[in-house]
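Q: My labmate handed me this sequence with no annotations at all. I'd like to see what the chain might look like in three dimensions before we decide whether it's worth expressing. Could you predict it?
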Amino acid sequence: MKKGNLSPNLKLSLPPPDEDSISKFLTGSGTFMDGDLLVNRDGVRIVSQNQVQAPPLIQPSDNQLSLADFDAIKVVGKGNGGIVRLVQHKWTGQFFALKVIQMNLDENTRRHIAQELKINQSSQCPYVVVCYQSFYDNGAISIILEYMDGGSLADFLKKVKTIPEPYLAAICKQVLKGMWYLHHEKHIIHRDLKPSNLLINHRGEVKITDFGVSAVLASTSGQANTFVGTYNYMSPERIIGGSYGYRSDIWSLGLVLLECATGRFPYSPPQQGEGWTNVYELMESIVDQPPPCAPSDQFSPEFCSFISACVQKDPKDRQSANELMTHPFINMFDDLDIDLAPYFTSAGSPLAQF
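A: Here is what I predict for the chain of 354 residues:
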Protein backbone atom coordinates (compact mmCIF):
# COMPACT_ATOMS: atom_id res chain seq x y z
CA MET A 1 0.00 0.00 0.00
CA LYS A 2 1.30 3.47 -0.83
CA LYS A 3 1.79 5.56 2.27
CA GLY A 4 -0.16 8.78 2.43
CA ASN A 5 -2.27 7.79 -0.56
CA LEU A 6 -5.46 6.62 1.16
CA SER A 7 -8.54 8.16 -0.37
CA PRO A 8 -11.42 8.76 2.07
CA ASN A 9 -13.72 7.85 -0.82
CA LEU A 10 -12.02 4.53 -1.52
CA LYS A 11 -15.32 2.66 -1.49
CA LEU A 12 -16.78 4.91 -4.16
CA SER A 13 -14.10 3.90 -6.66
CA LEU A 14 -15.39 0.33 -6.78
CA PRO A 15 -17.60 -0.53 -9.77
CA PRO A 16 -21.19 -1.45 -9.00
CA PRO A 17 -21.85 -5.17 -8.56
CA ASP A 18 -22.68 -7.16 -11.68
CA GLU A 19 -25.77 -9.13 -10.65
CA ASP A 20 -25.36 -11.57 -13.57
CA SER A 21 -22.08 -13.02 -12.31
CA ILE A 22 -23.32 -15.52 -9.76
CA SER A 23 -20.69 -17.98 -8.58
CA LYS A 24 -20.41 -19.19 -5.00
CA PHE A 25 -17.67 -21.28 -3.51
CA LEU A 26 -15.65 -21.76 -0.34
CA THR A 27 -12.02 -22.87 -0.51
CA GLY A 28 -9.58 -24.27 1.99
CA SER A 29 -7.59 -21.05 1.73
CA GLY A 30 -10.25 -19.10 3.64
CA THR A 31 -11.59 -17.46 0.49
CA PHE A 32 -15.25 -17.43 -0.42
CA MET A 33 -17.26 -15.78 -3.17
CA ASP A 34 -20.84 -14.58 -3.38
CA GLY A 35 -21.81 -13.24 -6.77
CA ASP A 36 -18.96 -10.95 -7.80
CA LEU A 37 -17.70 -10.35 -4.24
CA LEU A 38 -14.52 -12.24 -3.35
CA VAL A 39 -13.57 -12.34 0.36
CA ASN A 40 -10.26 -13.60 1.72
CA ARG A 41 -7.57 -12.60 4.20
CA ASP A 42 -6.36 -9.92 1.75
CA GLY A 43 -9.71 -8.15 1.78
CA VAL A 44 -12.80 -7.89 -0.37
CA ARG A 45 -12.63 -7.48 -4.13
CA ILE A 46 -15.30 -6.91 -6.76
CA VAL A 47 -14.66 -9.45 -9.52
CA SER A 48 -15.91 -8.86 -13.04
CA GLN A 49 -17.64 -11.53 -15.14
CA ASN A 50 -14.46 -12.59 -16.94
CA GLN A 51 -12.56 -12.93 -13.65
CA VAL A 52 -14.96 -15.31 -11.92
CA GLN A 53 -12.89 -18.37 -12.86
CA ALA A 54 -9.61 -16.72 -11.78
CA PRO A 55 -7.53 -18.26 -8.97
CA PRO A 56 -9.24 -17.71 -5.60
CA LEU A 57 -6.46 -15.64 -4.01
CA ILE A 58 -6.37 -12.23 -5.68
CA GLN A 59 -3.71 -9.82 -4.49
CA PRO A 60 -5.02 -6.50 -3.16
CA SER A 61 -4.51 -3.43 -5.29
CA ASP A 62 -2.34 -0.52 -4.16
CA ASN A 63 -5.30 1.50 -2.88
CA GLN A 64 -6.74 -1.31 -0.75
CA LEU A 65 -6.79 -0.90 3.02
CA SER A 66 -5.06 -3.42 5.27
CA LEU A 67 -5.73 -4.10 8.94
CA ALA A 68 -2.02 -3.58 9.57
CA ASP A 69 -2.46 0.07 8.54
CA PHE A 70 -4.54 0.89 11.63
CA ASP A 71 -3.82 1.52 15.30
CA ALA A 72 -6.58 0.54 17.73
CA ILE A 73 -7.67 3.38 20.06
CA LYS A 74 -10.53 1.97 22.15
CA VAL A 75 -13.73 -0.08 22.08
CA VAL A 76 -16.72 2.15 21.27
CA GLY A 77 -19.51 -0.41 20.94
CA LYS A 78 -20.56 -4.00 21.46
CA GLY A 79 -23.52 -6.08 20.36
CA ASN A 80 -25.13 -8.14 17.59
CA GLY A 81 -22.23 -10.59 17.47
CA GLY A 82 -19.57 -7.93 17.02
CA ILE A 83 -17.26 -5.43 18.70
CA VAL A 84 -16.70 -1.93 17.30
CA ARG A 85 -13.37 -0.20 17.89
CA LEU A 86 -12.18 3.29 17.12
CA VAL A 87 -9.04 2.96 14.99
CA GLN A 88 -6.69 5.46 13.42
CA HIS A 89 -5.03 5.12 10.04
CA LYS A 90 -1.27 5.23 10.58
CA TRP A 91 -0.37 7.25 7.50
CA THR A 92 -3.16 9.84 7.33
CA GLY A 93 -4.31 10.11 10.96
CA GLN A 94 -7.90 9.60 9.82
CA PHE A 95 -10.28 7.90 12.27
CA PHE A 96 -12.42 4.92 11.30
CA ALA A 97 -14.67 2.43 13.06
CA LEU A 98 -13.55 -1.20 12.91
CA LYS A 99 -16.38 -3.70 13.39
CA VAL A 100 -15.30 -7.29 14.01
CA ILE A 101 -17.89 -10.06 13.65
CA GLN A 102 -16.94 -13.57 14.70
CA MET A 103 -17.74 -15.95 11.86
CA ASN A 104 -18.31 -19.28 13.59
CA LEU A 105 -21.26 -19.62 11.23
CA ASP A 106 -22.20 -21.95 8.41
CA GLU A 107 -21.30 -21.31 4.80
CA ASN A 108 -24.80 -20.16 3.86
CA THR A 109 -24.73 -17.47 6.54
CA ARG A 110 -21.30 -16.32 5.43
CA ARG A 111 -22.72 -15.91 1.94
CA HIS A 112 -25.56 -13.80 3.33
CA ILE A 113 -23.09 -11.56 5.11
CA ALA A 114 -20.89 -11.33 2.02
CA GLN A 115 -23.94 -10.14 0.09
CA GLU A 116 -24.61 -7.46 2.70
CA LEU A 117 -21.00 -6.30 2.55
CA LYS A 118 -21.32 -6.00 -1.22
CA ILE A 119 -24.41 -3.84 -0.76
CA ASN A 120 -22.69 -1.67 1.83
CA GLN A 121 -19.62 -1.07 -0.32
CA SER A 122 -21.74 -0.08 -3.32
CA SER A 123 -23.83 2.44 -1.36
CA GLN A 124 -23.24 6.13 -2.01
CA CYS A 125 -25.46 8.28 0.18
CA PRO A 126 -24.66 11.02 2.75
CA TYR A 127 -27.31 9.53 5.06
CA VAL A 128 -25.85 6.01 5.11
CA VAL A 129 -22.63 5.13 6.98
CA VAL A 130 -19.78 4.52 4.53
CA CYS A 131 -18.30 1.00 4.40
CA TYR A 132 -14.72 1.38 3.12
CA GLN A 133 -13.28 -2.13 3.19
CA SER A 134 -13.85 -5.60 4.60
CA PHE A 135 -11.58 -8.49 5.53
CA TYR A 136 -12.14 -12.17 6.29
CA ASP A 137 -9.37 -13.49 8.50
CA ASN A 138 -8.94 -16.10 11.23
CA GLY A 139 -12.65 -16.83 11.57
CA ALA A 140 -13.84 -13.21 11.67
CA ILE A 141 -15.10 -10.53 9.31
CA SER A 142 -13.57 -7.10 9.96
CA ILE A 143 -15.32 -4.09 8.43
CA ILE A 144 -13.74 -0.63 8.13
CA LEU A 145 -16.54 1.92 8.50
CA GLU A 146 -16.92 5.67 8.63
CA TYR A 147 -16.48 6.79 12.25
CA MET A 148 -19.46 8.67 13.67
CA ASP A 149 -18.01 10.39 16.73
CA GLY A 150 -21.33 11.07 18.46
CA GLY A 151 -22.11 7.39 18.86
CA SER A 152 -25.62 6.10 18.31
CA LEU A 153 -28.99 7.68 18.88
CA ALA A 154 -29.44 5.09 21.66
CA ASP A 155 -26.31 6.42 23.40
CA PHE A 156 -27.50 10.00 22.98
CA LEU A 157 -30.96 9.19 24.29
CA LYS A 158 -29.46 7.77 27.50
CA LYS A 159 -27.89 11.18 28.15
CA VAL A 160 -30.72 13.52 27.21
CA LYS A 161 -33.65 11.19 28.17
CA THR A 162 -36.03 12.79 25.63
CA ILE A 163 -35.60 14.70 22.37
CA PRO A 164 -37.84 17.77 21.71
CA GLU A 165 -39.96 17.85 18.58
CA PRO A 166 -37.91 20.43 16.62
CA TYR A 167 -34.77 18.29 16.91
CA LEU A 168 -36.73 15.11 16.24
CA ALA A 169 -38.03 16.59 12.99
CA ALA A 170 -34.48 17.47 11.88
CA ILE A 171 -33.25 13.97 12.81
CA CYS A 172 -36.18 12.30 11.10
CA LYS A 173 -35.65 14.28 7.90
CA GLN A 174 -32.16 12.81 7.53
CA VAL A 175 -33.27 9.29 8.42
CA LEU A 176 -36.06 9.45 5.84
CA LYS A 177 -33.58 10.52 3.16
CA GLY A 178 -31.41 7.52 4.05
CA MET A 179 -34.44 5.21 4.02
CA TRP A 180 -35.59 6.59 0.69
CA TYR A 181 -32.14 5.83 -0.73
CA LEU A 182 -32.11 2.28 0.64
CA HIS A 183 -35.70 1.56 -0.43
CA HIS A 184 -35.93 3.27 -3.82
CA GLU A 185 -32.33 3.47 -5.07
CA LYS A 186 -30.88 0.24 -3.67
CA HIS A 187 -34.14 -1.73 -3.17
CA ILE A 188 -33.01 -2.74 0.33
CA ILE A 189 -35.22 -3.39 3.36
CA HIS A 190 -33.16 -2.49 6.43
CA ARG A 191 -34.94 -5.05 8.69
CA ASP A 192 -33.26 -3.83 11.88
CA LEU A 193 -33.92 -0.10 12.23
CA LYS A 194 -33.52 0.95 15.88
CA PRO A 195 -31.81 3.74 17.87
CA SER A 196 -28.48 1.87 18.05
CA ASN A 197 -28.39 1.66 14.23
CA LEU A 198 -28.77 5.42 13.76
CA LEU A 199 -25.39 7.09 14.24
CA ILE A 200 -24.65 10.78 14.81
CA ASN A 201 -21.59 13.03 14.69
CA HIS A 202 -20.39 16.47 15.77
CA ARG A 203 -21.44 17.98 12.44
CA GLY A 204 -25.08 17.24 13.20
CA GLU A 205 -25.30 14.39 10.70
CA VAL A 206 -27.50 11.34 11.22
CA LYS A 207 -26.71 8.19 9.24
CA ILE A 208 -28.16 4.69 8.97
CA THR A 209 -25.86 1.74 9.61
CA ASP A 210 -25.99 -2.05 9.95
CA PHE A 211 -28.60 -2.62 7.25
CA GLY A 212 -28.62 -6.38 7.06
CA VAL A 213 -25.52 -7.82 8.71
CA SER A 214 -26.78 -7.84 12.29
CA ALA A 215 -30.22 -9.04 11.17
CA VAL A 216 -28.62 -12.00 9.40
CA LEU A 217 -26.68 -12.86 12.55
CA ALA A 218 -29.79 -12.60 14.73
CA SER A 219 -31.91 -14.74 12.41
CA THR A 220 -29.36 -17.54 12.43
CA SER A 221 -29.15 -17.77 16.22
CA GLY A 222 -31.18 -20.32 18.13
CA GLN A 223 -31.16 -18.08 21.20
CA ALA A 224 -34.18 -15.90 20.46
CA ASN A 225 -34.21 -14.30 23.90
CA THR A 226 -30.73 -12.90 23.27
CA PHE A 227 -32.15 -10.69 20.55
CA VAL A 228 -35.02 -8.93 22.32
CA GLY A 229 -33.49 -5.61 21.24
CA THR A 230 -33.86 -6.63 17.60
CA TYR A 231 -37.47 -7.77 17.99
CA ASN A 232 -38.50 -4.59 19.85
CA TYR A 233 -38.88 -2.59 16.66
CA MET A 234 -40.06 -5.39 14.36
CA SER A 235 -43.32 -4.86 12.47
CA PRO A 236 -46.36 -7.07 13.18
CA GLU A 237 -46.26 -8.66 9.74
CA ARG A 238 -42.66 -9.75 10.25
CA ILE A 239 -43.38 -11.16 13.70
CA ILE A 240 -46.19 -13.40 12.41
CA GLY A 241 -43.96 -14.61 9.59
CA GLY A 242 -45.95 -12.99 6.80
CA SER A 243 -44.65 -11.29 3.71
CA TYR A 244 -43.16 -7.87 4.33
CA GLY A 245 -41.66 -5.02 2.38
CA TYR A 246 -40.16 -1.56 2.71
CA ARG A 247 -42.97 -0.36 4.96
CA SER A 248 -41.87 -2.74 7.70
CA ASP A 249 -39.00 -0.26 8.16
CA ILE A 250 -41.55 2.57 8.46
CA TRP A 251 -43.16 0.82 11.45
CA SER A 252 -39.72 0.63 13.09
CA LEU A 253 -39.10 4.32 12.41
CA GLY A 254 -42.38 5.23 14.13
CA LEU A 255 -41.44 3.28 17.26
CA VAL A 256 -37.95 4.82 17.31
CA LEU A 257 -39.32 8.38 17.10
CA LEU A 258 -41.96 7.73 19.74
CA GLU A 259 -39.30 6.34 22.08
CA CYS A 260 -37.09 9.38 21.48
CA ALA A 261 -40.00 11.72 22.21
CA THR A 262 -41.29 10.03 25.37
CA GLY A 263 -38.05 8.56 26.72
CA ARG A 264 -39.42 5.03 26.92
CA PHE A 265 -40.15 2.15 24.59
CA PRO A 266 -43.79 2.38 23.39
CA TYR A 267 -44.81 -1.11 24.55
CA SER A 268 -44.92 -1.54 28.32
CA PRO A 269 -44.33 -4.97 29.93
CA PRO A 270 -47.20 -6.51 31.98
CA GLN A 271 -45.32 -5.94 35.24
CA GLN A 272 -44.20 -2.33 35.35
CA GLY A 273 -40.56 -1.83 36.23
CA GLU A 274 -39.59 -5.46 35.65
CA GLY A 275 -39.04 -5.45 31.90
CA TRP A 276 -40.02 -8.13 29.40
CA THR A 277 -39.44 -11.63 30.76
CA ASN A 278 -39.07 -13.10 27.27
CA VAL A 279 -39.26 -12.10 23.65
CA TYR A 280 -42.53 -13.95 23.03
CA GLU A 281 -44.53 -11.77 25.44
CA LEU A 282 -43.25 -8.71 23.64
CA MET A 283 -44.06 -10.15 20.20
CA GLU A 284 -47.61 -11.04 21.30
CA SER A 285 -48.14 -7.48 22.51
CA ILE A 286 -46.99 -5.99 19.21
CA VAL A 287 -49.24 -8.32 17.21
CA ASP A 288 -52.33 -8.27 19.44
CA GLN A 289 -52.43 -4.81 21.03
CA PRO A 290 -53.55 -1.65 19.22
CA PRO A 291 -50.62 0.31 17.78
CA PRO A 292 -49.04 2.87 20.11
CA CYS A 293 -49.71 6.57 19.69
CA ALA A 294 -48.17 9.84 20.81
CA PRO A 295 -50.10 11.39 23.75
CA SER A 296 -52.07 14.27 22.25
CA ASP A 297 -51.77 16.30 25.46
CA GLN A 298 -47.96 16.23 25.28
CA PHE A 299 -47.19 16.56 21.59
CA SER A 300 -48.27 18.57 18.56
CA PRO A 301 -51.05 17.29 16.29
CA GLU A 302 -48.47 17.10 13.50
CA PHE A 303 -46.20 14.77 15.49
CA CYS A 304 -49.13 12.60 16.58
CA SER A 305 -50.25 12.37 12.98
CA PHE A 306 -46.74 11.44 11.81
CA ILE A 307 -46.46 8.61 14.34
CA SER A 308 -49.90 7.35 13.34
CA ALA A 309 -48.85 7.35 9.67
CA CYS A 310 -45.91 5.08 10.58
CA VAL A 311 -47.39 2.55 13.00
CA GLN A 312 -50.51 1.35 11.22
CA LYS A 313 -50.96 -2.39 11.81
CA ASP A 314 -51.69 -2.99 8.12
CA PRO A 315 -48.55 -2.08 6.13
CA LYS A 316 -50.70 -0.90 3.22
CA ASP A 317 -51.98 1.89 5.48
CA ARG A 318 -48.48 3.18 6.30
CA GLN A 319 -46.94 5.94 4.27
CA SER A 320 -43.71 5.42 2.34
CA ALA A 321 -40.48 7.23 3.12
CA ASN A 322 -41.10 9.47 0.12
CA GLU A 323 -44.63 10.33 1.28
CA LEU A 324 -43.48 10.99 4.84
CA MET A 325 -40.93 13.52 3.54
CA THR A 326 -43.86 15.81 2.72
CA HIS A 327 -45.68 15.29 6.04
CA PRO A 328 -46.36 18.59 7.90
CA PHE A 329 -44.32 17.46 10.92
CA ILE A 330 -41.08 17.19 8.92
CA ASN A 331 -41.10 20.82 7.82
CA MET A 332 -43.04 22.55 10.62
CA PHE A 333 -39.86 23.81 12.33
CA ASP A 334 -37.97 24.90 9.22
CA ASP A 335 -38.27 28.58 10.16
CA LEU A 336 -36.37 27.89 13.40
CA ASP A 337 -33.25 26.89 11.42
CA ILE A 338 -32.54 23.94 13.73
CA ASP A 339 -28.83 23.11 14.05
CA LEU A 340 -28.20 19.57 15.31
CA ALA A 341 -24.42 20.05 15.63
CA PRO A 342 -24.39 21.95 18.95
CA TYR A 343 -27.28 19.84 20.21
CA PHE A 344 -25.37 16.58 19.65
CA THR A 345 -22.04 17.89 20.96
CA SER A 346 -23.61 19.33 24.12
CA ALA A 347 -24.07 15.78 25.43
CA GLY A 348 -20.39 14.99 24.87
CA SER A 349 -18.66 13.29 21.95
CA PRO A 350 -16.85 9.98 22.49
CA LEU A 351 -14.07 11.28 20.20
CA ALA A 352 -13.33 14.05 22.69
CA GLN A 353 -12.98 11.64 25.59
CA PHE A 354 -9.89 9.59 24.73
